[in-house]
Amino acid sequence: MVVGLIVLTVAILAAGAEALHWMRVWQMSALVFGPGRRPGLLATLAAPLRITGLVLLAWGLPVLWMEKPLTLDDEETSAAGKKHVVLLMDVSPSMRLVDAGPENSQSRARRARELLTSFFDRVPVQQYKITLVAFYDQAIPVVVDTSDMEVIINALSDLPMHFAFRGPKTNLFAGLKAVTEICHPWNPNSTTLIVVSDGDTVPAQGMPRMAASISGVL
Fold this sequence. Notes:
By secondary structure, the protein is of the alpha/beta class.
């Protein structure tokens, strides 16, 4: 209804403007078109074409403004079910050591953030819901199942997550257990787990069993 009123208004105004313009041109038509006062084909079609163009513009812009955009996320999640990426982020004190990067001049946390940003730049992230879990001696979900990448980037960049922990030792298994609890209700093979840590040792026993929803671990 609103679009129809806009189109009708623009059509009336454009037609009125063209009529006024033609009246002024006709007064000088002998000079413009010669003694016969007969305009050429292009001049004859100019007014209808301008009116048509303005009407199409008046219809197209409101439709684009009001129509909900169709994204890859809408298509993929409706057709094949929701997909997830879970980031399990180490926030232990060693992640703040400055010895990472090509020049060994970055903190390990900053280097991890750059790697994750590069990863998300190269994958169709709009098809996924993102979850961020921070871990040190225990694990704390920071963001669960969001589609807003700015929230994730902000958490990785400026959020001092290490202040939430007081433990003396990194516990990767606690992080994996928390991830399993979060992922348990999700569809099978719908989740990719990304573990970001500077540690390389884990206990010989106690590895949590991964949820059926986790299809791969990076």
